[in-house]
Every structure is written in structure tokens, then in C-alpha cells.
Design goal:
It is a single chain. It is built from twelve helices and no strands. The chain is mainly alpha-helical. The protein has one domain: ABC transporter involved in vitamin B12 uptake, BtuC.
């Protein structure tokens, strides 16, 4: 394998991993507040459809990208109503959100299948884009990829150095103690759900506005489930989420290139690769529970204060 092919594969790895990274960061944000949301796939695909329709209607991919985030928040707000207001089971509610989101997006998007929309194109960064190897891999992408470089360190700063971030962590770790300290745990959990949903919607919009520039049924193709697994693999740490997202992005990029090269490996086997890796990652992560930053009260409902 030549150096040019390796560099092209690594560049494709970054692009393929970006939507997974957005979704994973969104789920980390949600789970840090103590709420488990298995509806990532549903929020992503609704964001993908919304971004596509808005960009196609208005001609503005930036507006479509922002609208996708809002719809992602709106979708996860349904989960918030069920879990925070009605004290429903978080696992069941998340699964229902995925079923609802995928079904609704595929139904509403049936008339757009195969159509294209204006999207984000590669934007090289002068100076950095010309660096040997590193330039083509990291700095010859679209604006949304560059934005994804900034979010993990900012999220780390938020949780480690800001009052609101520490309050959200307290809501996920020790909600009773947080309440005794005067914090509104339910409000912090709402913040986690809505901001996390916004990032999930952005991950879906990346697929329709930057990765493909078109709409097709089941566009997310299970990436939301991969994001849920990556949260565990990343031990709830934004920095590790970057590595995990690019790892899965590399598998997906390799799978597509193997199919395009006419390999004799059955296509069904190649399509299984990302999900086989997902199972492997979950098994590997379960052996290292002691190093995890999993919130202690994750998935535990809290009665709203009177």
C-alpha cells in the first residue's frame, strides 16, 4: 500500500468518523447529567432530514445545519418529558425515540430519496493544508470537521473548570448531595438532554450536508448505536471519544474502499465490520470498569422538587 493510499484512507477516516464524533459527544453530554438516552439514532436521522430539507429549501447549508441541531434537541426533549416529568423508564423511552425517529424520518423523507441539496465543501486551511501527511489528513476537509476539532477540548473545559459543568457532573454523580447544596438537578438534566440532542442532530446533518449531499432511506445506518457504544469505550471522556470515533470511521472507510475495489469478500461480511468492532469494544471496555468516569446515578430517575 503506497503512502498516497494510506493518507487518503486516513483522511477518509476523519471524514467518516466526524458524524459519529458529534453524536458521541452529544451522548456524553447527556449522560454526564445522569440521563441515559438510547435514542441517538432517532435524533440523528431526524437531524439529517431536517438539515437536508432546510438547506434544499433555503439554499443555506449553515441554516440547515443549525436547524438540524434544534430538531435534535426537540426530539430528545420528548425523552426528557417521559423521564423527567413522568419518571418513565429511560431505556424504554430511548428505544422508543429511536423507533419513532427512524420511522418518521424515512416516511417524511420518502419524497426526497435520491435528491441533492447544497452542502459543505472542502475548505483548505492555508499553511496547515500543505504540511506533509498531516495537512491532507486533517486540514483539507469541510468547516464542520474543523468545528469537531474544537468541541472536545471545550467540552472538557466545561466539565472540569466551569460552575455549570461541575453542577451537571454533580447531578449525574450525587443528585441528592447536589440538591442539598441548592442545585436544581432536574434543570441540569434538562440542559444535558437538550444540548446533547443538539449535537446528535448536528451529527445527522453532517451526513446529509457534508458526507453525501443527498438524502436516502436509513442514512444514519446505525451510527447512533455506535455512538452509544463509544461513550462506554471512551469512559465518558471527550478526548477518548475522538479516538474511538476515528477508529470506527477508519473501519467504515476501509469497508467502502474494499467494496469499491471489487474484493472477493462478501459485501455482507464487510457491512458487519463496524458492528463486530462495536461488540468487541463493549467487551474490552467491560474489563476496565475501574478506570471509567461513568456517572454514579446514570439512568436513575429523580423526583422533581416541589
Amino acid at each position: 500500500m503506497t503512502a498516497e493510499i494510506i493518507i487518503a484512507l486516513l483522511a477518509a477516516t476523519v471524514q467518516s468518523g466526524t458524524p459519529i464524533l458529534y453524536a458521541t459527544l452529544g451522548e456524553i453530554f447527556t449522560e454526564k447529567s445522569g440521563v441515559l438516552n438510547l435514542g441517538v439514532e432517532g435524533a440523528m436521522i431526524l437531524g439529517a432530514l431536517t438539515g437536508f430539507i432546510v438547506a434544499r429549501t433555503t439554499g443555506s447549508p449553515a441554516l440547515g445545519f443549525f436547524a438540524a441541531g434544534l430538531v435534535g434537541s426537540l426530539a430528545t426533549a420528548i425523552h426528557g418529558v417521559v423521564c423527567l416529568w413522568f419518571q418513565g423508564n429511560q431505556v424504554v423511552s430511548g428505544l422508543a425515540l429511536t423507533i419513532l425517529g427512524v420511522g418518521l424520518a424515512n416516511y417524511l423523507g420518502s419524497g426526497y430519496v435520491g435528491m441533492s441539496a447544497p452542502g459543505f465543501n472542502p475548505l483548505t486551511i492555508p499553511g496547515l493544508a500543505d504540511l506533509p501527511a498531516i495537512g491532507p489528513i486533517f486540514f483539507q476537509h469541510d468547516l464542520l470537521v474543523y468545528l469537531s476539532y474544537l468541541i472536545p477540548p471545550l467540552m472538557w473545559l466545561f466539565f472540569a473548570r466551569t460552575r455549570f459543568g461541575l453542577g451537571m457532573r454533580a447531578a449525574g454523580e450525587y443528585p441528592a448531595a447536589a440538591t442539598a447544596a441548592g442545585l436544581n438537578v432536574v434543570a441540569y438534566r434538562w440542559l444535558g438532554i437538550l444540548v446533547g440532542g443538539f449535537f446528535m442532530g448536528l451529527g445527522g446533518a453532517y451526513l446529509s450536508l457534508a458526507y453525501t449531499h443527498l438524502w436516502t432511506t436509513n442514512l444514519t445506518a446505525g451510527r447512533g448505536w455506535i455512538a452509544v457504544a463509544l461513550v462506554i469505550f471512551a469512559f465518558w471522556r471527550p478526548g477518548r471519544a475522538v479516538f474511538g470515533a476515528y477508529l470506527f470511521g477508519g473501519i467504515m472507510a476501509m469497508q467502502l474502499r474494499l467494496q469499491a475495489s471489487g474484493t472477493q469478500v462478501p459485501s455482507s461480511i464487510l457491512l458487519m465490520l463496524p458492528y463486530v468492532l462495536t461488540v468487541f469494544v463493549l467487551v474490552l471496555s467491560s474489563w476496565r470498569k475501574g478506570t471509567s468516569d461513568q456517572p454514579a446515578a446514570l439512568g436513575i430517575n429523580i423526583e422533581p422538587a416541589d
